[in-house]
Amino acid sequence: MNETPAPRLLFLFDMDDVLVRYDWKTRMAGLTDLTGHELDELRRRWWLSGNESRAEAGHFPDGDAYLAAFAAAMECDVPETEWARIRGSAMTELPQRIEAVRIASEHGRVALLTNNGPLAGRWIHRWAPSLPPLFGEHLDTSSNFGARKPDPEVFRRALAHHGARAEDTFFADDMPENIEGARSVGISAVLVEHDTDLREAVRDFVASRNDSLEARLTSA
């Protein structure tokens, strides 16, 4: 449970292809060079086996355990700095989307909710240096909550962690199934597509909640 006071409004943001452009091909090319495995074999050993999904759901207790399991699956040495360099090379910050986070931060708490394991959580602040000043301590990966999107449980646990109500929470993600997971627990969720103006989506949510609050006060 978060020990800071509960926010009136909570804004949850996915990371890849929402706040940063994520080039999967660049990452896979870097990992094939590092491990010596062709793409199909690389994916078979880690992604298709379900290891990454398990990591995102909190299976590995920390980044060291994740990296050891990854290296064992690849049957080669995988230095953490190289793993991180390759992941970071596939990411490019999207300034207009990050501006939406800044706008949201003026109205409530902003927090990351990205399907990633504990090792990613250790490096996000370096991969996307514009995020820490906005998110502070709330650069959360799904592994922190022991569940992954689109499982509704990850959203329930995020709400409990922040002490927020679902109806006062905004969520942005690029995957329709994750949007449905959030909406299933009552969160206002926006599907982020190529031409989505996330700044306007944030402003619209703030306006809707202010209207709701005003209506409640008027009828009281």
Structure overview:
With 220 residues, the chain is of the alpha/beta class. The protein contains 11 helices and 7 strands. It has helices spanning 24-35, 39-45, 51-56, 63-74, 80-89, 95-105, 118-127, 132-135, 152-162, 176-183, 198-219; strands at residues 10-13, 20-22, 91-93, 109-114, 139-141, 169-173, 188-191. The chain has a 5-stranded parallel sheet with strand order 5-4-1-6-7, sandwiched between helices. Strand 6 (169-173), helix 10 (176-183) and strand 7 form a beta-alpha-beta unit. The two termini are 31 Å apart. The mean pLDDT is 95.
Describe the secondary structure blueprint for this structure.
Blueprint lengths: L9 E4 L6 E3 L1 H12 L3 H7 L5 H6 L6 H12 L5 H10 L1 E3 L1 H11 L3 E6 L3 H10 L4 H4 L3 E3 L10 H11 L6 E5 L2 H8 L4 E4 L6 H22 L1
Parallel strand pairs: 1-4, 1-6, 4-5, 6-7
Antiparallel strand pairs: 2-3
Helix pairs in contact: 1-5, 4-7, 5-7, 6-11
Question: Care to give the gist of this entry?
Answer:
By secondary structure, the chain is an alpha/beta fold. Helices cover 51% and strands 13% of the residues. It has 11 helices and 7 strands.
List keywords for this structure.
51% helix, alpha/beta, two-stranded antiparallel ribbon, 220 residues, 11 helices
